[in-house]
Structures are given as structure tokens and as C-alpha cells.
Amino acid sequence: EIESSEWIWLRNRSDLSSYKGGYKNGSKDGQGKMIWSDDSFYEGNFNLTKLSGHGKMVWADGKSYEGMVV
Questions:
Q1: Nearest-5° angle of CA 24, CA 2, CA 44?
Q2: Which of 1, 32, 50, 55 sits a CA distance of 20 to 30 A from 42?
Q3: The model's pTM
Q4: pLDDT at 38 > cutoff 60
Q5: Is residue 21 within 8 Å of 7, Cβ to Cβ?
Q6: Which residues lie closer than 8 Å to 33 by C-beta, 6 or more apart?
């Protein structure tokens, strides 16, 4: 298993999500993009696998939010 990488691509078979971005100590960390099976996505900052800081969320219906995520 990869512990740290500047960029990594992960595919989760259980929920068909994918992630491309920073990875540190086994967690999504730094800038990245998470895409879910319904084509919703979040692009922005991750901290210990959680959405954190500034980012953009776009839902499958086209609605979106851009700003700070807590």
C-alpha cells in the first residue's frame, strides 16, 4: 500500500467513487478531486481524507457550491 504521494489515483469498488490528488500517510491530503458514481464531484482541499478549506462541490443535478468547507 502506498503511504504518501504527491498525486495518486484511487478507485473505490464498493461505491464506485474515484479520487485523484495528494495522498499522505494513507489519507487524502492536499489538493484533489473526488468523483462519485452519480457524477457529483468535489475539487479542492482535503485534510486527513475529509473535505477541508476552499473547494467546489458540483452535484449530479448541476447545482454547485464554491467556497470554504468546514
A1: 40
A2: 1
A3: 0.80
A4: yes
A5: yes
A6: 19, 20, 21, 41, 42, 43
